[in-house]
Design a protein that fits this description.
The structure holds two protein chains of two kinds.
Chain A lengths: L1 H24 L14 H4 L11 H6 L10 H5 L12 H24 E2 L2 E2 L2 H7 L11 H20 L7 H27 L11 H8 L2 H4 L2 H4 L6 H29 L5 H9 L6 H12 L4 H10 L10 H26 L2 H9 L4 H12 L1 H17 L2 H6 L6 H10 L5 H26 L21 H29 L1 E3 L3 E4 L2 H7 L1 E4 L2 E4 L4 H31 L5 H10 L5 H11 L11 H24 L4 H9 L4 H12 L1 H17 L4 H4 L7 H10 L3 H26 L8 H7 L1
Antiparallel strand pairs in A: 1-2, 3-4, 5-6
Helix pairs in contact in A: 1-7, 5-7, 7-8, 8-25, 8-26, 8-27, 9-22, 12-13, 12-16, 12-19, 12-23, 14-16, 14-23, 16-19, 17-18, 19-22, 21-22, 21-27, 23-34, 24-34, 25-28, 25-31, 28-31, 29-30, 31-34, 33-34
Chain B lengths: L10 E10 L3 E11 L4 E5 L6 H9 L6 E6 L2 E2 L10 E4 L11 H10 L5 H14 L15 H13 L5 E5 L7 H18 L3 E5 L2 H7 L2 E6 L2 E6 L1 H6 L4 H6 L4 E11 L2 E6 L2 E6 L6 E7 L4 E3 L5 E10 L4 E7 L3 E6 L11 E6 L5 E4 L2
Helix pairs in contact in B: 2-3, 2-4, 3-4
Classes of the chains: A mainly alpha, B alpha+beta.
């Protein structure tokens, strides 16, 4: 078996060397207008035209000579090809290659921009530069990945992680992409918290903005004044985190541990709010409880009360957020509640614990990681939410909307936005660390390698009754909201002309069949297809990156793991508005030029939603006993095969959660998207917001309704595709008997 | 029909040390040689490093210092995947989403066998452990003993150079334990496998092993055949850990050559000196090797007498110690308070240094 590694590792080395050369010799070095797949560049002067030329043709024509040193690290790995993996030179060559190549790419990328040298001190040092360059294209991308993976292979050969090429490569990959797409833009953005008006850096600027009364004021406690936005956000997020966790747990219990007949229906019902663009719930709440809302009207006529604006402010935002994020808590908790080994509970029952005692002393404590995760998600989601506070906030300002207005509003104060972002980050990170501390080092492994046969006990009846009642009330409320949305989409003009009509749907989604085929004449089709396309690309990528990261975090130990985890979770703690602005600032200029492309949308979705995949993956993976991996390894599988054949199949619920979540979020996200869309790549949500701004509520709600149904369909298809993993619990059979 | 064979190889540890972090020493500079085709047991109290040693053979832990050889190959830096070793886990670690057959076939798929060979081998392996006809079941539909056999079959079909068992019987009931341990031993001997076996149960170790390695505090206390360990323990720890032993304090009055003159209370006798020098020492003796009513010996009083069916068990008190003895004569039991003369059987007592 020792021989099989040798024959395996060399092809991988060869592959990445070839990728590097392909990037250097064949692919256009710089970004191609219209994208690589437009194939116009192929007939338009490739390979000699400066815009489309691969690096080697640029250099031979005497252009962009700073690319020439890249030849050194391109040639170097060839000397490693014939060497044994255990040869110390093999590792040295590859590490050196990767390090030189990768750092040269970065150095030249950041120092030379559209106008020559990017920094004044560089031009004073080297004199004026005639050349200039644009964003890197596929050539650069190929070469960069080649250098990266040569580096990781070298590190692996030196003995890191038992010489595991896959694991070291995966770590390197995640670090590289998180560095490029989370840290780079955020650091860029945060630096601007210290920038003075004349462009230099000063701490006083930061301090002045940080200790602002608008941020930390407490006057609302003692009088009629307003409290600081920081306190507002914190209070709201704690409430939302708590409420969503409790409600999520309630629904998880109803689905897994009650004799309730329509458990499946409950399961489906709780999916509804996540497939809904967040501001739609806000709109529906206004339709119901707003000044001229139907319920408000009904009660004011009944009791002769004056309608109030109670909805606008904390209550409205909280209701909308709890509606929106309970299902996320549910998705996290359902896996955990199902993952509690029935034999633990059965053991407790045989130890003379009553059902209630079993629940309190065994089931609930075993769910603690899940509860903490759910709370954390709710807390952070609420902190970062932008749509609902925007629509329902009224005078109740929170951090995320303040950031938005600091940038797009009349004040245009980048520094203030950055300071607000730092505060927001402080809150979410504190929550993150508190959660880790609370969980401590307890092991919650309950699915062991030993086949587990048992049945979850039903809830104690003292708990079952309130749980079912709350679930019923909440479900009714949710159903009403959705009824409102559908009804609203078919009303001519809400509150004014209540005739039913399909007019909004026709405007948005009309199709004409001509001799030339189908013609998508509706006004919404463009943004619709773009959204579907972007979401379809983003979802599997997000799930893959998230689960691989979760695998590295739970199953491998390496130096700097805590920093690694911190880095991967960071993007989650950053509200979309900040991501949006920072992406615009960071990726509008070389070396990574992405604004106006579809890629920037996909990338922003991957890094916005990846932490959910990571969290879901970690929660389920920590319930899989490590001896499963180890036995697979001793049976001759390598770590990639183990990941694919053992971990992934046992993680199907987590994969489904990650896929559904990232797809749906990509379709419903608004806060980051609103900065990143372009004429060519307009997303559904930004189109809808545009309609709302034009007071075209009918079309906006009709479009939203359509989106909801499309996502419902997508969730169904995904559920079919992923399937359920049989691990042979006697659940269903036993349930029917009891 | 394909037969499962063995490619048994030796295992050697050369000055192997394993540290966790910078201050926890799990294994402290051990040397160990395991012959091919032998079943060697690592025995010791929990925390002594026996499982760490096993996992280092498997490649699941890497040695901090020293070298590990399997056969002639230095595997010190090879990960588990690349070592020709398979392991049966304490929890069995059957993949819950795969059938029995898929579990057993799992490793074969990575070892270059084609589909039909894999199938045949897997079935041969299941036959070997007596699980014919269970191939389509999921692990959760098997009893503990059956799951255990699947785990064994899964490891066996790869014909590993070394087969590892990590406390394989600890999840089984007592009756099954004896049966499974005999089956493991039988398969090991029939196929001539090299097996490294971890347990904390000394009876299990004595029953299955060709050789036993007794471990204590991250190092090896003694290594030898079951008989050697039982009859001639190297120190009081081994004497006490393997089987029951009476540890009697005594005085070595003189040593001449291999013979030591020993004073036990007022009873004088000679024993093989085994390197013990003059002064205080310990005599270790098994309960069955104490002769009650011997012609020469020391005086003791019967303190407790217990009838256990096949024999009598006595607790005896003498001037220098309390000891435990057994006698096969159940028809004429001694009475409590009776004074007796206690001697040693010829091969029984072992002189040990005071620790």
């Amino acid at each position: 078996m020792a021989t099989s590694t040798k024959t395996l590792s060399q092809p991988i080395l060869l592959l990445w060397i070839l990728v590097g050369w392909a990037g250097f010799l064949l692919l256009p070095w710089y970004l191609v207008d219209g994208g690589l797949f437009s194939d116009q560049w192929l007939v338009d002067g490739y390979p000699f035209d400066k815009n489309y030329a691969p690096a080697v043709f640029l250099i031979t024509q005497g252009e962009k000579l700073w690319l020439a040193p890249l030849l050194i690290p391109l040639v170097m790995p060839l000397f490693a090809l014939k060497r044994e993996k255990s040869d110390p030179l093999y590792a040295k060559i590859l590490i050196l290659t990767g390090a030189i190549g990768f750092s040269w790419l970065i150095i030249q990328g950041f120092s030379i921009g559209i106008r020559g040298w990017n920094y004044d001190w560089l031009s004073s040092l080297f004199g004026k530069l005639d050349g200039r360059q644009f964003g890197m294209g596929y050539g650069g991308l190929f070469l960069a990945s080649s250098f990266l993976f040569l580096l990781t292979q070298g590190i692996a050969a030196r003995g890191a992680i038992n010489g595991d090429v896959f694991v070291v490569g995966a770590i390197g990959f995640v670090i590289a992409i998180v560095g490029a797409f989370v840290f780079l833009p955020i650091v860029n953005m945060l630096m601007s918290a210290f920038i003075t008006e004349d462009g230099s850096y000063s701490f006083l600027v930061f301090a002045g903005k940080f200790f602002d009364d608008r941020l930390w004021g407490l006057s609302c406690l003692i009088g009629p004044g307003r409290c600081g936005v920081a306190w507002n956000s914190l209070f709201l997020a704690v409430c939302v985190g708590f409420l969503t966790t409790v409600l999520g747990l309630i629904f998880a219990l109803v689905v897994t541990r009650s004799g309730f007949k329509y458990r499946r229906a409950v399961r489906a019902l709780t999916i509804l709010p996540i497939i809904t663009p967040p501001f739609v719930i806000g709109l529906a709440l206004i339709l119901m409880f707003g000044l001229s809302g139907s319920i408000t009207q009904f009660f004011s006529e009944l009791f002769g009360l004056q309608p109030t604006r109670w909805l606008y402010g904390l209550p409205g935002v909280m209701i909308a957020q709890v509606l929106a994020y309970t299902p996320i808590a549910f998705l996290v908790l359902i896996g955990v509640v199902e993952g509690v080994s029935p034999s633990m509970e059965e053991a407790a029952q045989t130890l003379r614990a009553s059902r209630w005692q079993v629940f309190k002393t065994v089931s609930l404590p075993l769910m603690r990681p899940g509860l903490a995760n759910a709370f954390l998600l709710g807390f952070i989601e609420s902190m970062a939410d932008f749509g609902n506070p925007l629509i329902l906030g009224g005078n109740f300002d929170v951090l995320s909307t303040e950031i938005f207005f600091a940038i797009v509003g009349a004040q245009y104060d980048q520094g203030r936005a950055a300071v607000l972002a730092i505060v927001l980050l402080g809150f979410t990170l504190t929550a993150f660390f508190a959660q880790r501390k609370w969980l401590g080092k307890k092991s919650y492994t309950t699915v062991s390698g030993k086949g587990d046969s048992g049945v979850h006990p039903l809830m104690p009846s003292g708990l079952a009754i309130p749980v079912l009642v709350i679930a019923a009330i909440w479900s009714t409320f949710t159903l009403t909201i959705y009824g409102m949305i559908i009804y609203g989409s078919m009303v001519k003009l809400w509150g004014v002309d209540n005739t039913l009509t399909f007019k909004h749907y026709v405007t948005a989604f009309s199709v004409r069949v001509t001799e030339k085929g189908w013609q998508w004449t509706g006004s919404a089709w463009d943004s619709f297809w773009t959204t579907i396309q972007i979401a379809t690309i983003a979802a599997p990528l997000t799930a893959a990156v998230g689960l691989i990261t979760a695998y590295l975090l739970t199953r491998q130990s390496f130096r700097g793991k805590n920093a690694f985890e911190f880095g991967t979770m960071l993007s989650f703690a950053i509200p979309g508005t900040v991501i949006g602005v920072s992406y615009i600032l960071a990726f509008n200029v070389p070396p990574i030029e992405l604004t106006g492309t579809g890629a920037i949308l996909v990338i922003s979705f991957i890094f916005r939603n990846m932490p959910v995949g990571v969290r879901a993956g970690i929660a389920s993976m920590s319930q899989l006993d490590k001896s499963l991996d180890e036995s697979s390894l001793t049976l001759g599988a390598n770590s990639w095969q183990t990941f694919r054949k053992i971990i992934l199949p046992l993680l199907k619920p987590a994969i489904l959660a990650a896929l559904v979540y990232s797809f749906v979020r990509a379709m419903t996200a608004i806060s980051a998207v609103i900065f990143l869309v372009s004429a060519k790549y307009d997303m559904a949500t930004s189109y809808i917001i545009g309609r709302v701004e034009n007071n075209d509520y009918g079309l906006a709600i009709a479009y939203s309704t359509t989106l909801i149904f499309v996502m419902l369909l997508a969730v169904g298809i995904l559920q079919l595709l992923v399937g359920r993993t049989k691990i042979g619990r006697r659940e269903s059979a036993a349930r029917e008997k009891s | 029909m394909i037969d499962i064979n063995s490619k048994a190889a030796t295992v050697s540890f050369r000055n192997v040390t394993k540290m966790y972090g910078s201050d926890v020493t799990a294994i402290d500079n051990i040397n160990l040689d395991i012959e091919a085709g032998k079943l060697v047991t690592l025995l010791g109290p929990s925390g002594c490093g026996k499982t760490t040693t096993l996992r280092m053979v498997a490649g699941l832990e890497m040695a901090t210092q020293g070298q590990i050889f399997i056969g002639d190959v230095d595997v010190t830096n090879l990960p588990a995947t690349d070592r020709d070793v398979s392991m049966v886990f304490q929890s069995y670690a059957l993949f819950p989403h795969m059938t029995v057959l898929e579990n057993v076939s799992y490793g074969l798929g990575f070892s270059g066998f084609n589909k039909s060979e894999t199938r045949e081998r897997a079935h041969a392996g299941l036959d070997l452990v007596g699980l014919k006809g269970y191939s389509e079941r999921l692990p959760s539909a098997l009893s503990g003993g059956q799951q255990q056999r699947v785990a064994v079959a899964r490891a066996l079909v790869l014909e590993p150079q070394v087969l590892l068992f990590d406390e394989p019987l600890s999840n089984l009931d007592a009756k099954l334990r004896r049966q499974v341990r005999e089956e493991i031993r039988e398969i090991q001997q029939n196929l001539g496998l090299t097996v490294v076996y971890v347990t904390h149960d000394q009876e299990e170790a004595l029953a299955v092993s060709d050789e036993i390695v007794v471990m204590r505090n991250a190092s090896i206390a003694q290594m030898g055949t079951p008989r050697q360990l039982y009859d001639t323990p190297a120190d009081t720890f081994v004497a006490d850990f393997i089987g029951e032993a009476n540890l009697l304090p005594c005085e070595v009055t003189a040593v001449s050559g291999d013979v030591a003159h020993v004073l036990l209370g007022d009873f004088q006798t000679t024993l093989p000196s085994r390197g013990v020098s003059q002064g205080a020492a310990i005599i270790a003796i098994r309960p069955s090797r104490l002769v009650i009513g011997a012609a020469s010996g020391f005086k003791a009083v019967v303190n407790k007498a217990t009838y256990v069916g096949s024999r009598m068990e006595y607790t005896l008190v003498s001037g220098f110690s309390t000891m435990f003895a057994v006698q096969d004569d159940v028809d004429n039991p001694l009475s409590i308070g009776q004074e007796v003369i206690v001697g040693f059987s010829k091969t029984g007592p072992v002189l040990l240094p005071v620790t």
